[in-house]
């Protein structure tokens, strides 16, 4: 991950660092100073007078990049240790001409024989660390002018510059450019002190001799077999073939080299690749070059690397480096460490698990395997073995795909004008997509994560080493039935805009245009009409394609808080839906009378219902809000009674309750405390879990009252419960007798922290679940990159907005199908084929394997057996089906008609429905399968035990001919189970 400080706001940093007076220097974009227009820090050197140093003392170099003279009176140079603690400081005075340097001489070292330099200000008390630290320029009021952090420093602008050594400094790559990103603006290299008079000190000179190839230490020795180099902080010389090069703005400013040798995975115990830091040296090499490198080797954020101070082309090429085919992703850090810095070609299946950071840092989270990482509390109850197992699995199979760059695409101006890596409108990077590695990648460890780096920076699709599968679903799956219910969180659909509220701020695009609201009292959505239309277009497209009979909405505006009718926004959405559909397809359920303002659950966002009158009827006057104190920090549950369109009064009426529980964000006290960091991911439920549980309990009571009130046991609870499937708020409802129709994957409603899980659910009472014909989680939103959202319009130079359904929100909609038809078929029945047991001995197989089919929507059925050798045998080509059922027995018989044991192995019995209706053919029918096993038994005794092979020398001993036939047992031929028709029409008593 990236350094946590860049995500902190000014308030958090002030509380942590207020004693130093540096609270104003928070690196978070909202708190840091704007890029300097005059005085900047241009270079810092901390190895002065140390062993291996270049000069006899440290220095801090400043530069006036403006075209006018500036005053230094009151300017303070403040030095901080790597952990952010304030150290020594010095106050400057005088003036600095335009485009001139100013050199502050810092503490001298013990090696006084090293060259010295001229300086403009003497500050011998400032002792700068040789590898890491921070320097700030403050004006006379302690407001920040500029800040530089390097190495593992905790104070920096956007990201720290590289670590230095006793022989290297950190200096601006272009002294006239300040982007407020230390990693981008500064490079590590040879110290070059420059003072006001232009004297850059005694020339330390070039190395007296060229690099001596006889002093080469192999890369594998520098890497060692542990997690850290055996040569920390030492000057070394090594050689290798260049495998990756990163130059230009925002890049890693260095290159990888690797030993040219074949790797035997069985004996491989140390990496033979390493990163070489140094932008100027990276510009001198190309992939495939054989080079000698000298510099200091050390650990930088957990990665072994060399800070180069000399580079030469090798006289004789070392050979070629081919990507090592890595058969699977190593599950432990120790196993990964032996490949750090090496060129790899990952094999096996990798799946996109996270694309949120793609919009910010150019990263794509991957999972080794065929599915994304799953939230532990989606897989198991918090603290359960299942939750711990999922958390452990996530650690084992997760890895990042990076872009070879370090800048932040959300805050860095140059980055915004460089196309996001990997993602275009034609090449989506969707969660759940398979990743095909076309070219080699280098295994890197940075910011606390293992990552695959491309061999060159990826800009757009340029230099991309991968191809992503397109797994988008243009429409939801067919859930069957006569009508359907869906839930859809519409991402702050507000008709009240930022322009409607005085003082409302905005998030801006890369050109400074307002896009979405920020820090406003009421509006939470689009800032102006132009962006509202972009947002609405996507939502309308998605809902019309969802095409559910009833859609429960969350996160739609409650305009009554600003004096409008409570239904104004939902009415506006319905009008837009109908206009796009070209017909009066949609209507909304009107709000009930609300006795007082400020009721529990009153919020700027609300829940709502829209529905299609051609498919369902809303029973007038049944809309009801739950007024309960437990929802003082949530949204009041909203209920309504519906029936199939055209149904007789009281027939098949069902209740739907839409919910939006308290969010997981923040922390309360007691059972509302957020203890995720303390307890770990297997227990992670976020904040306010206690309140969500109490909201679930109140909801269950509300549902029970509605059942009695409307004389129906058909109840659907839906919406955004802000709890994953195995967390207490959901299980509280399940324990009350409800069925979660949308749990278990493989698709989920939400993506967070690189993992997927469902916060949005459709739960049904036991009676209602009987009528469900199918379910689907339509993965159009949470699975798509946030860069496609209306709220990120023109954040990047690449055009990524499209007026389609994808990323219309941040939650995936869920839909379930229902059938109340009186067609003689038990509601919700799926065809099922079962055998009496899953395993039979050979002796038991003499009596035959009994099977039964139920729920088949056909008149006849094709029954086949796939034997242990993979041969397919037709048991019955047109068996009769009665009331959806049939049964039979399969035995092996000799030509003489005697039953014989079935051979040992695994068998698949399958049944294919025929003539489902006049239009359906055999090719359209889906077979239903049952698997059983035949195991050997000891009936023959000792060495005479029959293994069922019936081959070779076994044939004479058994006395059976090899030409045996598969026959149905005559006495138990295919027959209907005859259970009788089940009436599904439901009427009130």
From TrEMBL:
Residues 197-215, 822-833 have a biased composition (Acidic residues). Residues 955-989 form the Gram-positive cocci surface proteins LPxTG domain. CDD domains: MnuA_DNase1-like (cd10283), YhcR_OBF_like (cd04486). Keywords: Cell wall, Endonuclease, Hydrolase, Membrane, Nuclease, Peptidoglycan-anchor, Secreted, Signal, Transmembrane, Transmembrane helix. InterPro entries: Endo/exonu/phosph_ase_sf, Endo/exonuclease/phosphatase, ExeM-like, Lamin_tail_dom, Lamin_tail_dom_sf, LPXTG_anchor. This is ExeM/NucH family extracellular endonuclease. Residues 27-152 form the LTD domain. Residues 1-33 form the signal peptide. One of its GO terms (molecular function) is endonuclease activity. It comes from Candidatus Agrococcus pullicola. PROSITE patterns: GRAM_POS_ANCHORING, LTD.
């Amino acid at each position: 991950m990236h350094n946590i400080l860049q995500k902190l706001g000014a308030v958090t940093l002030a509380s942590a660092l207020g004693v130093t007076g540096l609270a104003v220097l928070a690196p978070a974009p909202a708190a840091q100073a704007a890029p300097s227009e005059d005085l900047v820090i241009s270079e810092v050197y901390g190895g002065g007078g140390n062993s291996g140093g270049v000069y006899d003392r440290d220095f801090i170099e400043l530069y006036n990049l403006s075209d006018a003279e500036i005053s230094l009176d009151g300017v303070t140079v403040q030095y901080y240790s790597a952990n952010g603690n304030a150290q020594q400081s010095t106050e400057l005075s005088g003036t600095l001409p335009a485009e001139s340097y100013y050199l502050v001489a810092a503490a001298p070292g013990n090696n006084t024989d090293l060259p010295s330099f001229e300086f403009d200000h003497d500050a011998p008390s400032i002792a700068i660390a040789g590898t890491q630290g921070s320097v700030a320029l403050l004006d006379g009021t302690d407001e920040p002018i500029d800040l530089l952090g390097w190495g593992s420093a905790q104070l920096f602008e956007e990201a720290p510059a590289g670590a230095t050594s006793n022989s290297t400094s950190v200096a601006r790559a272009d002294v006239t450019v300040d982007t407020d990103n230390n990693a981008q603006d500064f490079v590590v290299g040879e110290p070059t002190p420059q003072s006001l008079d232009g004297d850059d000190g005694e020339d330390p000179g070039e190395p007296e001799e060229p690099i001596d190839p006889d002093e080469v230490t192999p890369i594998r020795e520098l890497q060692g077999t542990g997690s850290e180099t055996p040569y920390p902080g030492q000057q070394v010389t090594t050689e290798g073939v260049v495998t990756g090069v990163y130059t230009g703005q925002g890049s890693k400013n260095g290159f990888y080299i690797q030993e040219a040798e074949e790797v035997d995975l069985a004996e491989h115990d140390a990496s033979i690749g390493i990163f070489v830091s140094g932008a100027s040296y990276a510009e001198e090499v190309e992939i495939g070059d054989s080079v000698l490198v000298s510099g200091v080797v050390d650990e930088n954020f957990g990665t072994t690397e060399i800070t180069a101070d000399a580079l030469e082309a090798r006289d004789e090429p070392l050979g070629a480096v081919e990507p090592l085919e890595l058969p699977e992703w190593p599950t432990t850090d120790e196993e990964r460490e032996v490949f750090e810095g090496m060129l790899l070609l990952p094999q096996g299946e990798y799946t996109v698990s996270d694309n949120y950071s793609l919009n910010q840092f150019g990263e794509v989270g991957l999972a080794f395997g065929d599915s994304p990482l799953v939230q532990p509390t989606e897989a198991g109850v918090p603290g359960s073995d299942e939750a711990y197992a999922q958390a452990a699995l996530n650690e084992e199979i997760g890895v990042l795909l990076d872009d070879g760059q370090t800048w932040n695409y959300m805050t860095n101006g140059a980055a915004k004008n460089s196309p996001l890596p990997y993602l275009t409108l034609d090449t989506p990077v969707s969660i759940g997509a398979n990743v095909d590695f076309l070219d080699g990648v280098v295994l890197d460890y940075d910011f606390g994560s293992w990552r695959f780096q491309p061999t060159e920076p990826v800009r757009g699709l340029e230099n991309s080493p991968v191809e992503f599968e397109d797994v988008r679903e243009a429409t939801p799956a067919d859930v069957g039935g006569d009508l359907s219910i869906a839930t859809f969180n519409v991402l702050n659909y507000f008709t009240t805009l930022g322009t409607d509220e005085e003082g409302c701020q905005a998030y801006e695009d890369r050109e400074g245009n307002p896009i979405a609201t920020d820090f406003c009292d009421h509006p939470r959505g689009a800032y102006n009409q132009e962006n509202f239309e972009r947002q609405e277009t996507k939502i309308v497209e998605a809902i019309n394609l969802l095409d559910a009979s009833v859609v429960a909405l969350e996160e739609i505006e409650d305009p009554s808080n600003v004096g409008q009718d409570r239904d104004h926004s939902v009415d506006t959405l319905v009008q837009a839906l109908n206009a796009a559909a070209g017909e009066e397809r949609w209507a909304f359920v009107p709000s009930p009378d609300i006795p007082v303002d400020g009721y529990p659950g009153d919020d700027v966002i609300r829940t709502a219902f829209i529905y299609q009158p051609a498919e369902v009827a809303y029973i007038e006057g049944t809309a009801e809000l739950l007024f309960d104190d437990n929802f003082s920090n949530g949204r009041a549950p909203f209920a309504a009674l519906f029936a199939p369109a055209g149904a007789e009064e009281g027939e098949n009426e069902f209740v739907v309750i839409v919910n939006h529980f308290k969010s997981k964000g923040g922390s309360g006290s007691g059972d509302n405390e957020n203890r995720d960091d303390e307890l770990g991911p297997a227990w992670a439920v976020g904040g306010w879990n206690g309140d969500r549980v109490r909201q679930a309990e109140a909801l269950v009571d509300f549902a029970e009252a509605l059942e009695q009130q409307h004389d129906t046991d058909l109840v659907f609870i839906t919406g955004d419960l802000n709890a994953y499937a195995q967390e207490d708020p959901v299980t509280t409802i399940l324990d009350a007798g409800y069925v979660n129709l949308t749990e278990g994957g493989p698709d989920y409603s939400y993506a967070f922290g690189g993992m997927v899980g469902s916060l949005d659910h459709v739960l049904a009472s036991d009676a209602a679940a009987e009528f469900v014909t199918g379910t689907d989680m339509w993965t159009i939103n949470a699975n798509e990159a946030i860069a496609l959202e209306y709220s990120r319009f023109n954040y990047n130079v690449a055009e990524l907005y499209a007026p389609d359904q994808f990323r219309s929100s941040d939650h995936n909609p869920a839909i379930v199908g229902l059938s109340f038809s009186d067609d003689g078929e038990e509601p919700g029945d799926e065809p099922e084929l079962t055998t009496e047991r899953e395993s039979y001995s050979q002796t038991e197989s003499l009596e035959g394997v009994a099977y039964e089919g139920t729920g088949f929507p056909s008149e006849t059925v094709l029954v086949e057996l796939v034997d242990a050798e993979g041969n397919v045998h037709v048991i019955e080509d047109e068996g009769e089906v009665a009331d959806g059922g049939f049964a039979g027995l399969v035995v092996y018989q000799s030509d003489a008609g005697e039953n014989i044991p079935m051979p040992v192995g695994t068998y698949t019995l399958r049944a294919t429905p025929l003539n489902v209706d006049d239009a359906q053919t055999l090719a359209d029918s889906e077979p239903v399968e049952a698997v059983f096993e035949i195991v050997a038994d000891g009936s023959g005794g000792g060495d005479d035990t029959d293994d069922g092979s019936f081959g070779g020398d076994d044939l004479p001993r058994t006395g059976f001919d090899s030409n045996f036939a598969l026959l149905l047992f005559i006495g138990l031929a295919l027959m209907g189970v005859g259970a009788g028709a089940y009436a599904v029409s439901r009427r009130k008593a």
